[in-house]
Specification:
Blueprint: E1 3-8, E2 16-24, E3 31-35, E4 53-60, E5 67-72, E6 75-79, E7 91-99, E8 109-111, E9 114-117, E10 125-126, E11 135-139, E12 146-149, E13 152-153, E14 161-164, H1 168-172, E15 176-179, E16 182-188, E17 191-198, H2 208-222, E18 232-238, E19 243-247, E20 251-256, H3 264-279, H4 306-323, H5 329-345, H6 354-359, H7 372-375, H8 379-395, H9 401-413, H10 422-433, H11 435-446, H12 453-458, E21 462-467, E22 472-473, E23 476-481, E24 484-490, H13 495-499, E25 506-510, E26 513-514, H14 517-526, E27 533-539, E28 542-548, E29 551-552, E30 556-562, H15 565-572
Parallel strand pairs: 1-11, 17-18, 18-20
Antiparallel strand pairs: 1-2, 2-7, 3-6, 3-10, 4-7, 5-6, 8-9, 9-15, 11-14, 12-15, 13-14, 16-17, 19-20, 21-30, 22-29, 23-24, 25-26, 25-27, 27-28
Length: 584
């Protein structure tokens, strides 16, 4: 069916947008259902965007009102039979006002300075009907001079910001930035790449355009320069205290703290974010788990294969930055050091495999609470490390993860409607490395058995060097409310856990003495391991006393040191075997 969308931003300072959608009634139809998505592809959590709709009305093209009722939290039904109409007309409009004021890449944000519009959060769709070739027009304050999007501009739309898409899925998969933001761009491999930046950029000396272009060319090289788009948009929202990204079919939305661009390590982190979301253009948007398409926008779309979607991407993002010549081998290893150290420090790896972590993303990773690390492990974190281990195993066979990426693209990425299943990935790994490599990879994905990353990095000409911090270890972290110290997280099986300290407990006395925020580090710095400490707490307003026996600190990862630089550089450089491996 056809649909024409009109998006009007008249008073952006009120954080609201009016959307009007013109539909054409099918001949003889007595009812019509429409919906607003409950979640966004790529961000696996139910967000219930419909809660932000303020008013909604439905009229025929002559202005007569149609009866409708809400039949679910995000779904409505029009009933022509119960509507008192003087004339039965085919055209009708759904018009609604929606509040948009959440600044993330998974939501929409409108204020006096701009509008960032994320399709699933504000554009309705037709239930059980396919919307084809929709058009969308944007009207906004005349002082706003720019609109950036990967939607296709309609030719001949004089004086209008009018765009079109192939279908509803593509329409909501193209974020839009409107305002007076900074824009730039470059050509790479014969195709235009657009850059859009909203927000205050802290002064820095980095050349974003040059470095992003280098990332584009480096990532494309791994896919034989097969760019499956006509143009691409990198859209960055600069906002203090933020970091994140969301992939789209022909664009990506990023959010980052621009104050950190002046710091070398943080700048490399921004480039890794760019590389991560750009690589999703192939891995996720086209090479995807079979369950992730076509999408059901109403409820959870479960898959046990986010270790492929996000794990493989998490290996490659930092690696692309290194291979693009934008950081040294030492800086690359320093970036991934935190992931290796975190793996060993997360108790939840004993309870959730990569498959289980993936399947439970909707209630675990995206709703992580104070106990999350005690019960699960991120498929981004462990997934990236598992593919690192696979890369080491394949190198010993004269192959690499680069071979696997190209095989996935050739077999499944060019036919994205099919999707890929885990056994198909396993078969590819077997064809590259043999039965033993495949079985080891399956063990790392499907079980909670430990992975020896000391042995993994030795294969790369590196070694893990560990540190043993001094002082007493309690296994807790604290938040501060004014001068008061409140327990935030308690690590599984730690001394604080064994003593029964809970998140939310307020520390009052330590060995009978009152201590406040400014003195906390001093007092706990004086406590020795294996020295019993009496702590008085306030728990839900009631005083409790517990005894804690701290231990020595667990070892922490100090560095990934290079023992053979030539070997390390070869291992992490782009490498593909001669000829394509055949599927066994």
């Amino acid at each position: 069916m056809k649909a024409e969308y009109l998006v009007e931003i008249q008073n952006p300072e009120q954080n609201i947008v009016k959307v009007t959608v013109k539909f054409e009634r099918e001949a003889g139809a007595k009812k019509f259902r429409f919906f607003l998505p409950s979640w966004s592809p790529g961000s696996y959590m139910i967000r219930d965007y419909s809660r932000h709709i303020r008013t909604l009305q439905i009229t025929q093209e002559n202005g007569e009102y149609l009866n409708y009722q809400q039949i679910a939290k995000n779904q409505w039904e029009i009933d022509w039979e119960t509507s008192e109409l003087k004339k039965d007309l085919p055209g009708f409009e759904v018009s609604y006002v929606i509040y948009l004021f959440e600044l993330t890449v998974r939501t929409s944000h409108v204020n006096s300075s701009h509008a960032f519009l994320h399709g699933p959060s504000y554009l309705i769709g037709a239930t059980d009907q396919k919307i084809e070739d929709p058009t969308i027009e944007f009207r906004f304050p005349p002082l706003w001079s720019k609109l950036s999007t990967s939607l296709t501009s309609v030719e001949g739309a004089r004086g209008k910001f009018l765009y079109t898409a192939k279908d509803y899925d593509e329409l909501i998969d193209c974020p839009v930035e409107i305002g007076c933001h900074e824009t730039d761009g470059f050509m790479a491999l014969g195709k235009p790449h657009h850059l859009a930046y909203w927000g205050s950029a802290y002064p820095h000396l980095d050349k974003l355009k040059k470095d992003i272009k280098q990332i584009v060319e480096t990532v494309a090289l791994h896919l034989d320069n097969d760019l499956p788009y006509d143009q691409y948009l990198f859209l960055t929202l600069f906002a203090p205290g933020n970091r994140g990204g969301l992939e789209h079919l022909n664009s990506t939305a990023l959010i980052f703290d621009s104050r950190k661009l002046a710091n070398r390590r943080d700048y490399i982190s921004y480039l890794s974010l760019v590389a991560h979301e750009y690589f999703h253009l192939w891995n996720v948007k086209r090479i995807r788990p079979r369950e992730l398409g076509p999408f059901d926008y109403h409820t959870e779309n479960y898959t046990a294969m986010l270790w492929l979607a996000e794990g493989l991407t998490s290996l490659m993002d930092d690696l692309f930055v290194y291979r693009a010549g934008l950081c040294t081998i030492e800086e690359y290893l320093d970036q991934i050091k935190g992931n290796v150290g975190a793996y060993y420090a997360i108790p939840g790896k004993k309870f959730h495999s990569l498959e289980q972590s993936s399947f439970n993303a909707w209630v675990k990773l995206y709703k992580a609470d104070e106990n999350y690390k005690n019960s699960s492990i991120s498929y981004y974190l462990k997934g990236g490390l598992v593919f690192t281990a696979l890369h080491a195993l394949l190198l010993e066979k004269g192959k690499s993860v680069d071979d696997l990426i190209l095989m996935l693209w050739e077999h499944y990425g060019k036919r994205p409607h099919e999707g890929v299943e885990k056994q198909e990935v396993y078969d590819m790994i077997r064809s590259l490395g043999g039965e033993d490599v495949m079985n080891e990879f399956i063990r790392m994905v499907e079980t909670t058995e430990d992975i020896d990353f000391n042995a993994v990095f030795e294969k790369f000409g590196c070694q893990l060097n560990w540190d043993s911090p001094t002082g007493a270890y309690f296994g807790w972290s604290w938040d501060y409310h004014g001068k008061r110290a409140i327990a935030k997280t308690i690590e599984l099986d730690s001394p604080a856990y064994q003593a029964g300290i809970n998140p939310g407990d307020e520390i009052i006395f330590v060995n009978g003495m009152r201590f406040l925020r400014d003195e906390m580090n001093d007092i706990f710095g004086l406590i020795e391991p294996n020295q019993t400490v009496t702590i008085t707490l306030s728990r839900l307003g009631k005083m409790e006393t517990v005894e804690v026996l701290p231990t020595s600190h667990p070892k922490t990862l100090k560095e990934i040191a290079i023992t053979d630089k030539a070997k390390a550089e070869r291992a992490f450089s782009f490498s593909r075997s001669q000829g394509q491996s055949k599927m066994a």
